[in-house]
Amino acid sequence: MQLRTFTVENPATLTSVAEVPDMGPAEAREAVRCAHHVLDSWASRPPRDRSDILMRAHRMMIEDADSLADLVSQENGKSMSDAHAEIRYAAEFFRWYAEEAVRSEGTFGVASSGRSRSIVTHRPVGVAALVTPWNFPAAMVTRKVAPALAAGCSVVLKPAAETPLTAMAIADLLTRADLPDGVLTTVTTTDPGPVVDTWLGDERVRKLSFTGSTRVGRLLLHAAADRIINCSMELGGNAPVIITEDADLEQAVAGTMIAKFRNGGQACTAANRILVHRTVADDYVALLAARVGDLAVGDPRRGSAIGPMISARERDRLVTQVDTAVAGGARVVRQAPLPDLPGHFVAPTVLTDVAPGSPILNEELFGPVAPVVTWQDDDEVIALANATEHGLAAYVFAGDTLRAMALAERIQAGMVGINRGVVSDPAAPFGGFKQSGLGREGARDGLRAFQETQYLSVDWP
Ligand code: NAD
Fold first, then answer.
1. ipTM of the complex
2. Residues 158, 155: Cα–Cα separation, whole Å
3. Cβ partners under 8 Å of residue 112, min gap 6
4. Of 26, 193, 233, 416, whose CB neighbour count within 10 A is largest?
């Protein structure tokens, strides 16, 4: 039977990039069959073998960086410099977990009675289902695949329908790096519900690692409850950026530009609310507006710094959020010019006088719009920062680093950038408080997410 296909579209030019198979439950089940078939042989391979494959994948990804970055940019629309940065970041997960794969360790303990000894080890959790979003088509894949493979899990992967090509290219690269057949199978689809439901209903699947919206994460947690599946959830964010009265404003603006406009604002860690001390607000806004007004918006493959939104729906949602804020009294201070192109572009925008409680401060923006709010004392800014159901990232810019750290400790967020606008690091635990998720990726935590803890209780004479 001929498999149906769907078109992957370049969101900057609205031209077709490629056709890929549109799979369903039958292919999802077959992928699990393959993963389950090879699970034991993969899990029992010497850790050094698994490590070598991941290390080769890292090297190949760096060697292929230009073509992979081009692919990411074509299907996702991000700027070429963002695409290159993503490939370097994505490749680093292979290297980091190649190193981690051979650092397997446990503990040895003495029972309080003295009558037994405990040996604690970590076992692969089993077949893992990985579901990834479109906004980092490479890094969200390697951040899950690398630790899963290092832990000895076999995996089934479902990338977002908008950006399946990078995931397919990474799977191909792993095959060339000698990953055995069946250890990773990619299922591409425009109808994710039945595919992921098939996995969650299959007793051979023991793990779900999801990155995406809080709405879909909640749905999947409900579905995973039936079989008590081990879940890791990397969900939405609503990051505040706090600028204190003693901050270096040049540094604060440079950091805000990264936190807000990297990836065109389409990042879960993106700055959503800029909270600036009233005494420095005018100077800060003037500097920020100048930078934003200069942003080149357009086709990334023609050198723009800001590409399009991923879809017409996302563009319309963001434009409505801005219009609603303006109708509520917000003021547009500066907008970068829009290109005369067919893609889903939104002008990078600085908004001030945003009314407290305005929806734009509560909803994830996911685009190049920066709402600025002013504050007077620390308690007020902490209350503003924490007034959200999310708790993924936050940023603090302050002249006194200890004060910045003290403020950071009061923010309910899993990651806080201090005088810097980026927090992502393969060697650090990535994840959120509150409705931003469950568990952590990256670092040792990311490996543990694909392991069960087992302890042997040994009778002692
Ligand atoms: P999304 O939730 O719509 O989709 C994420 C993935 O889930 C995609 O693969 C999609 O096909 C799949 N999916 C959608 N509906 C589904 C369903 N009913 N059943 C099963 N699978 C389903 O999110 P998105 O629009 O692709 O990505 C943007 C969101 O992801 C934002 O909220 C962003 O904050 C979040 N995100 C979080 C992190 C993090 O690490 N915390 C990283 C990147 C993105």
1. 0.97
2. 10
3. none
4. 233
- Between the CA of 31 and the centroid of ligand 1 the distance, in Å, is 21
CB of 141 within 8 A of CB of 159?
yes
Mean pLDDT, consecutive 10-residue stretches, the chain (461 aa), reads 89 97 98 98 98 98 98 98 98 98 95 97 98 98 98 98 98 98 98 98 98 98 98 98 98 98 98 98 98 97 95 97 96 97 97 92 96 97 98 98 98 98 97 98 98 97 92
Give the active site residue among 86, 234, 314, 364.
234
Residues 158 and 129 sit within 8 Å (Cβ to Cβ): yes
H helices within 24-132, ranges in order?
25-43, 47-63, 65-76, 80-101
Q: Are strands 5-9 and 16-21 parallel, antiparallel or unpaired?
A: antiparallel
**Residue 446 carries which DSSP code?**
H
* Residue 100 falls in the annotated catalytic set: no
Both tokens of residue 374?
């002013």
User: What amino acid is encoded at 307 in this protein?
Assistant: G
Residue 422 carries which side chain, given as an amino acid letter? V
SS3 call for 177: coil
Half-sphere exposure of 227 (CA within 13 A, CB side): 18
Ligand 1 atom, smallest distance to 236 CA: 34
**What is the three-class DSSP state of 207?**
strand
- Of 140, 159, 16, the residue nearest 75 (C-alpha): 16
